[in-house]
Specification:
heterodimer, A: about 250 residues, alpha/beta, Rossmann fold, two-stranded antiparallel ribbon, 7 helices, globular, B: about 300 residues, 2 domains, 7-stranded parallel sheet, 8 helices, binds flavin-adenine dinucleotide, binds adenosine monophosphate
Chain lengths: ~250, ~300
Amino acid sequence: MKVLVPVKRVLDYNIKARPKADGSGVELSGLKMSMNPFDEIAMEAAIRLKEAGQVSEIIAISCGTQACQETLRTALALGADRAVLVETDEALQPLAVAKLLKVLVLREQPRLVICGKQAIDDDANQTGQMLAALLGWAQATFASRIELGTDHASVTREIDGGLETLSITLPAVITTDLRLNEPRYATLPNIMKAKKKPLETLTPADLGVDVTSRLTLLKVAEPPARQGGIKVNDVAELLDKLKNEAKVI
Amino acid sequence: MTILVVAEHDNQHLKAATRHVLAAAQAIGGEVHLLVAGQHCAAVAEAARALSGVACVLLVENDALESAGAECMADLVLSLVHDYTHLLAAASASGKNWMPRVAALLDVAQLSDIVRVDAPDTFTRPIYAGSVWATVRSEDTIKVITVRATAFEAVAETGGSARLQKVDATSDAGLSRRTHLALNDSSRPELESARVVVSGGRGLGSAERFSALLEPLADKLNAALGASRAAVDSGYVSNDYQVGQTGKIVAPDLYIAVGISGAIQHLAGMKASRVIVAINKDPDAPIFAVADYGLVGDLNQVVPELTSAL
Ligand SMILES: Cc1cc2nc3c(=O)[nH]c(=O)nc-3n(C[C@H](O)[C@H](O)[C@H](O)COP(=O)(O)OP(=O)(O)OC[C@H]3O[C@@H](n4cnc5c(N)ncnc54)[C@H](O)[C@@H]3O)c2cc1C
Ligand SMILES: Nc1ncnc2c1ncn2[C@@H]1O[C@H](COP(=O)(O)O)[C@@H](O)[C@H]1O
């Protein structure tokens, strides 16, 4: 079975995002960009299924600027067999990405799409669910365990107050939670090999998808700042402050 | 403007998050309707009629909704939403799960996790783990929104007298089936609505010490327990204790962070707490920059001392 893994290029999680001086967006120039951490987990899940002989081919897809090639090369070095870049300079909303992915799913006919649960730049947590809906497929979001069968997958997922296990009909979309696995690093030989793996570039127009945004970003600003507090010397002083100053206990 | 809010409940009780989402709906303005969909949940709908500012409670009872999968819930909401200008639900594990399906099927861009209503078509939401806030205007005819419950004061539980409307709606796409459910011990208050949260990090060192040190403290304070991702990853507690960008968002009156360094991803989930206490042996730990009261010390000594002094 083929698996599709959408991977997003995002500001590295170690870097604190700041608004541009004019508030028109987030400052990204010159900063380190990486694969969205949840997508590394999705890649790892797909690779393990392939290693277990349950998956025949892994296709990594990224939608965005030409620079996303780098993210796709990382995916190829990790273990994807080929990659597709949907290249555009437009800022893409999750709905637009889901529409692009839908056309690629119809073309590639995978039985499974594994997305990250959330891109750590926009924190939208939408794309996988939207893709599943557009395809009329089952979904299992926030997966912490995946067992793949031929017609069904059994997925354990986080819900409010605990865990549930779903049996979902394939084809389906799964989105990954942090606990699903610990992603591997790309080795140097694999990074070299990845350079020779196929990377196809398409545009939204090639796929017949209108990616015009319905949301207008009016401004980006620092959130209200929190006043730093004080250090207390001991437990007695802490209790005194909590009782008499903050009045929370 | 008429707004549909989708209630969160367990077929017996309305969850607190719903009243916060109603507050966001009232900030938008117009008439507010509340959908209570579930199995044998008439009592929830009856109680919801008294909520302040709700004009109409829509009740859908359907056995397929007992363990409603996202596919089922999305189809149901989709069948009801067409006369509304706004659709709102909590940005909880549940709302996050089904809401984007509704948005996609309406061909509408969803606004996730809003913290402010700027105008009926303009909303502010945190991005990049809350490092920045984005103000966004939606051009769509139906605004599909999930709400960060902690950012809005809950509406009152009483004072309203909404009309009740039963709606017949079924939907079961049969695409997914729950085969197992493991709910956590519910003797503690719920993390997202607790007045006090005690959270532990990698500094606790082991699952045994996490429970031996933090449970008695939480008991004394009638607090919910939370954790950093490092604590979850190390197996001290299960995943749904995680507070942060990719875990739960909490804003209790009192948040006590024990052995947590204060990574940006953790702060994203608790920075809005009213009072923050940090206990950490490293005086330079970033958690102290957001703590109202910082105590530098070894948690193995400080926590038992605090517990017994309470
Ligand atoms: C995509 C992504 C998403 C993430 N999402 C989240 C999230 O939602 N929530 C989250 O929490 N993290 C998240 N993280 C992880 C985050 O970056 C940090 O790694 C994590 O929060 C660190 O947890 P910690 O503070 O418990 O551990 P550490 O950073 O290891 O801190 C342990 C602290 O304990 C103190 N300590 C040790 N021993 C003692 C002692 N005896 N007495 C007192 N203090 C002691 C140390 O001084 C230190 O400050 C995410 C990371 C990524 C990449
Ligand atoms: N531009 C993109 N290119 C490829 N995959 C994406 C893109 N945007 C989102 N995704 C996928 O959708 C997941 C959820 O993203 P989001 O809905 O934006 O939080 C990500 O973890 C990726 O797997």
